[in-house]
């Protein structure tokens, strides 16, 4: 027959339930902690009340409510100190230290942890000391003091294994992974990340899973670049773990990582989505109201500690004074001297209080100045965005306005010619010569209207092609044949426009190149654009230097390990160094007005990098040569990362 536990036992049972849910379901921790606190207060069970406050602080911290965590944590520490319970004092100090570390306040966190370490060592509380050693390693890692971080984390991890403390073990293992990653040892880092994940999955320890998944994601991005699908895969795993465990700090770190990775992949929509999530989470964690509450609680606690120190000092002075009066009642000069000393100390305390008040005032002024600087920074960023948008809009308007002006002018002249034709046709004896002349001129105007209308349509088409994701079916493509075909096409196109233009064409095509899966229409567009630019460059140099110059365009292909290179080189005018960094920007062109939209190279860059996972770079010497190099993977991987259901739409376009 089961016997119900006493009421005080129910309090401790509820605090234990709160503790066991801290790293997997902080909302449950808060629920059980509140029940334990209410029951302990009803029973006037002060030790149980202190335990409940400490567990509540952990629950509020993990759920992102830092002001509430600090408030109940301080209350728990005060009650533990009143009870003079060393275990409770050590736990409360450790909880407050962890709270400050999670907010990024390394120095106060370290102070609380070393106080907790001293209490645990004096009371020989090994279980508490196990947690504290790993936590000190966390702070040193935050301060980037990696040798100290590695030492304390390794000591803490060894103690975790000895004490069979799973929660501390998986956290310390994940932190050791972070430390070895920073020390440049990815092999050891992966070992600890995998160990942490393997052990944490059984109990779904949220913070450890999030930390280990995110650490693996950062390793893959550093080693393979932002296009590594493994980086996104583990980044999403970290985000999902944090969201399932109601762990806002993990949501913030994972969404920041995903935003920066998608931005590096030039996927602005996904980058903005996760940046918005990070911004919303950060505001919920570190809003000005919450930070003001935290600062107010810190100031209140500092004042309490100062008052306690003053009261203790005054109490000590009173005891000392009474003892001296009783022992030395007959020695008046000594008593007077002691009285004078006490007065000096009191004045020193008053001066110290005044200095503390001045420090608090200066801190408030600095906080106000910092807020103003942040607001100014936000305004400057917004202005820069609007300036960039204005430049882009002006470029689009300029490119389309030129052909539209011609269309309008010829349309107006055509209207006048049509009026003249109508008037002449209405004559009793119309002049056939006049009618034929006007009709011929009208036909010529209509042809020009059609020509410039097509010009405007082509500009709009290029802009739309630049804006949308590169689509099309991927097939096995022979790059040698594709390059040779578009080389001949580009050359004959220039010869059709200028029959006197002659250039030397040189090809060096690697017979072992093999075939790759690609979109041949898209790659053909890139090759045609680069070759047209090359022929244009040598044509312009020929116009400048005349017969002493021999124009030449080269196309070469290579296979290097698992990468394929296609190079297009010309001995034309070259690209000046001051504009070389701008050539891939939309609407930037060096051609005269009407000959280029400035979208060709920008579109080519997107096709190669976004559409095929490769790279496009340029090398040039002004007055000597220009060489564009396309680098493509032999076996590209276009599979989507499993965790993100929304990502499937983006990848489906590329698959």
What do these coordinates show?
The protein has 655 residues and is an alpha+beta fold. It contains 21 helices and 7 strands. The chain has a 5-stranded mixed beta sheet, covered by helices on one side. A two-stranded antiparallel sheet has the order 1-3. A hairpin with a 2-residue loop joins strand 4 and strand 5. The longest helix is centred in the middle third of the chain and has 94 residues.
Strand fraction band? Answer: 5-15%
Number of distinct helices: 21
Query: Helical residue percent?
Result: over 70%
Strand order of the largest sheet: 2-4-5-7-6
Strands, total number:
7
Choose one word for the global shape: elongated
Question: Which structural class should the secondary elements be placed in?
Answer: alpha+beta
**Integer-rounded radius of gyration:** 38 Å
| CA distance, first residue to last residue | 64 Å
The biggest beta sheet is recorded as: 5 strands, mixed
Taking pLDDT < 50 over at least 5 consecutive residues as the criterion, the unreliable ranges are 288-303, 387-392, 466-470, 637-655
Mean pLDDT: 80
Written as H for each helix and E for each strand, in order along the chain, the element string is HHHHHHHHHHHHHHHHHEHEEHEEHEEH
Short description:
The chain has 655 residues and is of the alpha+beta class. Helix content is 73%, strand content 7%.
């Amino acid at each position: 027959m089961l016997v119900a536990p006493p009421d005080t036992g129910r309090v401790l049972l509820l605090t234990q339930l709160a503790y066991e849910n801290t790293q997997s379901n902080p909302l449950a921790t808060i629920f059980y902690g509140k029940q334990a606190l209410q029951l302990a207060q009803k029973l006037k069970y002060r030790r149980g009340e202190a335990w409940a406050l400490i567990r509540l602080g952990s629950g509020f911290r993990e759920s992102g409510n830092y002001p509430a965590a600090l408030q109940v944590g301080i209350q728990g520490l005060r009650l533990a100190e009143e009870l003079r319970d060393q275990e409770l004092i050590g736990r409360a100090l450790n909880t407050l230290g962890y709270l400050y570390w999670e907010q990024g306040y390394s120095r106060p966190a370290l102070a609380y942890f070393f106080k907790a370490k001293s209490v645990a060592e004096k009371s020989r509380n090994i279980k508490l000391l196990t947690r504290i050693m790993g936590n000190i390693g966390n702070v040193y890692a935050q301060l980037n003091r990696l040798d100290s971080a590695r030492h304390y984390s390794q000591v803490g991890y060894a103690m975790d294994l000895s004490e069979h403390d799973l929660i501390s073990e998986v956290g310390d293992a994940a932190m050791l992974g972070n430390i070895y990653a920073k020390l440049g040892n990815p092999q050891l880092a992966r070992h600890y990340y995998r160990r942490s994940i393997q052990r944490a999955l059984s109990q779904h320890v949220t913070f450890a899973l999030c930390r280990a998944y995110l650490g693996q994601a950062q390793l893959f991005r550093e080693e393979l670049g932002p296009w590594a699908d493994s980086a996104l895969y583990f980044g999403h795993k970290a985000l999902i773990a944090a969201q399932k465990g109601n762990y806002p700090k993990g949501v913030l770190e994972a969404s920041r990582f995903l935003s920066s990775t998608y931005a590096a992949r030039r996927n602005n929509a996904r980058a903005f989505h996760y940046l918005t999530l990070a911004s919303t989470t950060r505001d919920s964690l570190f809003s000005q109201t919450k930070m003001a509450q935290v600062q107010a609680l810190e100031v209140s606690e500092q004042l309490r500690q100062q008052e306690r120190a003053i009261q203790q000092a005054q109490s000590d002075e009173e005891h000392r004074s009474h003892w001296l009066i009783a022992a030395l009642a007959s020695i008046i000069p000594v008593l007077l001297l002691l009285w004078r000393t006490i007065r000096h100390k009191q004045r020193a305390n008053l001066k110290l209080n005044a200095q503390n008040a001045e420090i608090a005032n200066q801190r408030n002024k600095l906080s106000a100045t910092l807020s103003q600087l942040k607001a100014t920074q936000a305004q400057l960023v917004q202005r820069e965005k609007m300036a960039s948008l204005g430049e882009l809009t002006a470029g689009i308007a300029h490119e389309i306005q030129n052909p539209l002006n011609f269309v309008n002018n010829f349309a107006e002249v055509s209207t006048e010619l049509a009026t003249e034709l109508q008037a002449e046709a209405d004559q009793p004896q119309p002049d056939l010569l006049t009618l034929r002349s006007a009709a011929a001129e009208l036909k010529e105007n209509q042809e020009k209207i059609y020509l410039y209308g097509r010009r405007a349509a082509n500009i709009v088409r290029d802009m739309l092609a630049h804006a949308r994701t590169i689509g099309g079916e991927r097939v096995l493509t022979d790059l040698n044949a594709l390059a040779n075909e578009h080389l001949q096409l580009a050359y004959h196109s220039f010869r059709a426009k200028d029959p006197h233009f002659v250039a030397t064409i040189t090809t060096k095509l690697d017979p072992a190149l093999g075939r790759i899966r690609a979109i041949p229409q898209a790659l053909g567009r890139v090759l045609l654009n680069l070759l047209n630019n090359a022929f244009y460059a040598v044509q312009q140099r020929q116009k400048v230097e005349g017969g002493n110059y021999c124009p030449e365009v080269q196309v070469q292909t290579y296979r290097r390990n698992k990468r394929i290179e296609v190079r297009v080189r010309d001995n034309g005018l070259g690209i000046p160094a001051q504009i070389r960094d701008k050539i891939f920007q939309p609407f930037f062109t060096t051609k005269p007005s009407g000959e280029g939209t400035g979208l060709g190279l920008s579109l080519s860059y997107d096709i190669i990098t976004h559409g095929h996972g490769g790279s496009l770079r340029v090398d040039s010497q002004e007055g000597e040569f220009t060489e564009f190099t396309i680098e493509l993977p032999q076996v590209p991987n276009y599979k989507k990362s499993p965790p993100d259901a929304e990502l499937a739409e983006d990848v489906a376009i590329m698959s």
